[in-house]
Amino acid sequence: MAEIVNLRQFKKGKAREERAAAAEQNRALHGRSKSEKLRDKLQAEKAERLIDGHRREPGSSSSDKS
Fold this sequence. Notes:
mainly alpha; 67% helix; single chain; 66 residues
């Protein structure tokens, strides 16, 4: 025979699992500390300065070529 299941408990359990999956996804997307965000920002700025320092004509960007 089939197992008897309380539908209310089943629905609550399913909703709980969906919320847990959404929370896991949000932690992956937004779960960085302030120091990690600052480190990434500083690395991006350093890379931008390095690229700007190697340009042939100061002040021009690669999209300004005609």
